[in-house]
Design goal:
Elements: E1 2-7, H1 17-24, E2 28-35, E3 41-42, E4 47-48, H2 52-70, E5 76-80, H3 83-94, E6 98-102, H4 107-117, E7 122-126, H5 148-158, E8 176-177, H6 210-222, H7 225-232, H8 246-250, H9 256-269, H10 274-296, H11 317-324, H12 331-343, H13 348-361, H14 366-376, H15 382-393, H16 407-414, H17 419-423
Helix pairs in contact: 6-9, 7-10, 9-10, 10-15, 13-15, 14-15
Bound molecules: flavin-adenine dinucleotide.
Amino acid sequence: MKSIYWFRNDLRLKDNLALNYALNNSEHILFIHIDDTQNDKNSSWGFKRRGKHRNIFMLQGLEDLQKDLNAYAHTLNRFVGDPRNIFEGLIKQYKINSVFCEAIFAPEEQEKEKSIKELGVTIHAHFQSSLYMPEHLPFELKDLPDVFTQFRNKIEAEGIVPEEPVVLSERIKEILPISIVKENLFLPIFTEAYVNSSFPISDKKFKGGERNANLYIHHYFKSKYPETYKLTRNNLMGIECSTKFSPWLSLGFISPNQIYKALKEYERKNTANESTYWIFFELLWRDYFRFLFMKYGKKLFYKKGLGLSNNNCQHDEKKFNAWRNGKTPSSFINAGICELNQTGFISNRMRQILASYLVNELACDWRAGAAWFEHQLIDYDVYSNYANWSYIAGVGTDPRGGRHFNVDKQKNTYDPDGSYEKVWKKL
Ligand SMILES: Cc1cc2nc3c(=O)[nH]c(=O)nc-3n(C[C@H](O)[C@H](O)[C@H](O)COP(=O)(O)OP(=O)(O)OC[C@H]3O[C@@H](n4cnc5c(N)ncnc54)[C@H](O)[C@@H]3O)c2cc1C
């Protein structure tokens, strides 16, 4: 059987169930990656979906994946354009029977899978980006609690243990390649260093890719930072205050199960305390948002979200542009936007403050803000981004009906001496 393995947000060889499934069920394989957002404008908001920071990080990761596949005498064939058109050409030319990939439960991504299926091939799409698999949950997805705490309590009461990471199938050494492109990846040249960034992708330790992701996680759990994570996770700046796992997770350079295994080893060898538990707790939020998309689908992208609140805001383009360009009346908000735009990474706390300001103070459409985060964030993840935004806007499942952060109070708590604003004062 001739197959295509389509790498999406799972740019790794280890602990990749969908990839193993493809290797174990094919005789010939073509590895591909499709960049379908490079030329794309975000139609509603007028800017590209992916800006330069995530572009750099992704290209670094693709280069790494290329090297890893080359070591097994395979090639990563890269395409830019519409997946359906690209698949149509490849299926015809190479007489492909099956397409394997990870499943992504967001409407546009699902549409892409569907459009490929219409070409007459079998598509095996496996959802694999969460810590717990949907089939291991102690309830049907339609019964997923709308309150996170109830979800967490159910998981913990059942004592469900996440799956162990799997090794790469040995079949990769035997399976015959269908390699079509001998390509040189375009790699970005850094014109500026990511000075003061909390995730400086110009530093070789933070370059995208599976290798670096594993090294990073190894070093993190060799340090003492996990023991104090809960005390420092809300700091606005600094590499060590939170785990910085999200960029590696977002493109699938590492799986949550690999991280969970490292966390449990850390707890066994060192300390298990409230902080180490809280790392798991946050990963559980990540899972929860994934399952919410499975339950509610495209409703989570509506202006009114699940329709539980009265969101009648009149989006104001001028105010939105002032926000995204760091030109609001608040110097604290402008500093946050400056950090986001210059580095592609901001802390969870700053994400909450910026989102609340756009939605509550400027009364703008939350989806515009989510789109701007999508453009800028290195760690953009469709589920975590849109679910967090809808949560703050009060159109998701938050039982408190949204979050309104008092900017002055936040500034006094998290930047009392103004050092954050000083670093990020200019755009
Ligand atoms: C408006 C808004 C937009 C966001 N957009 C994204 C996004 O596009 N991609 C993304 O990965 N996260 C997003 N988050 C969640 C969170 O801010 C980041 O995951 C976190 O700041 C990343 O830093 P860290 O890895 O050091 O997190 P840590 O605090 O160290 O947490 C450990 C891991 O837990 C998960 N996690 C933590 N908090 C959350 C959360 N609130 N929701 C979901 N998962 C969480 C992440 O995978 C993170 O890597 C968003 C939050 C807000 C408020």
